[in-house]
Amino acid sequence: MLEEMIIAGFGGQGVMSMGQLIAYAGMLEGKGVSWLPSYGPEQRGGTANCAVVVSDQPVGSPLVTNPSTAIVLNNPSFDKFEPRIRPGGLLVINSSLVVRNSNRKDIKIIELTATDLANDLGNSRVANMILLGAFLEYTKIVSADSVIESLKKVLSEDKHHLLDINKLALKKGASLVTVGIS
Questions:
Q1: Quick one: 102 exposed, middle or buried, by C-beta within 10 A (0-12, 13-18, 19+)?
Q2: pTM exceeds 0.90, yes or no
């Protein structure tokens, strides 16, 4: 088992957090992992992406040039990473913000209006967790329970009140994954 992914969007959308949570969850499950962040010149609002590798073997390199999965949260990320996904791969799109369509027939596509769904849950900042829930449900690369355990470690104690909304967002994304696959 080897999953090489790119998660990309604007700074502040939780791109790095998603990658960290997948990597931490993989470590909790005894898998080989790597997480490699890449930031644009700005911090919040600039481009940001991270490469994450999860494997049942030790990871030899954190670099991901042709991902098996790309999770994109904005148009520039779609433009940059959609063509790089290897045939048979997966593209997960926040269609609330990405207005482009993929014409590729050699990949699976999950489109979710994650920002709109997050607003419906009462917190727009959990759009990333909705996408993560869908990705986890589709790939089973790590368990949602491991992600929640990782979230407990990543969030500072004063932010633990956000655990419930994040769990809800993960479940929401997972519940919609079969609906959103094309």
A1: middle
A2: yes
Phi, psi of 93, rounded to the nearest 5 degrees: -120, 135
SS3 159: helix
Residue 49 CB-density burial (10 A; 0-12 exposed, 13-18 middle, 19+ buried): buried
- Using alpha carbons only, give the angle 62, 58, 153 rounded to the nearest 5 degrees: 75
- Cα of first residue to Cα of last residue in the chain, in angstroms, is 24
Which of 40, 31, 43, 101 lies closest to 72, judged by CA?
101
The 3-state DSSP class for residue 170 equals helix
110: its two tokens: 């999950």
Question: What's the pLDDT tens digit per position in 58-101?
Answer: 998 889 999 999 999 999 999 999 999 999 999 999 999 999 99
Helix (H, G, I), strand (E, B) or coil at 103: coil
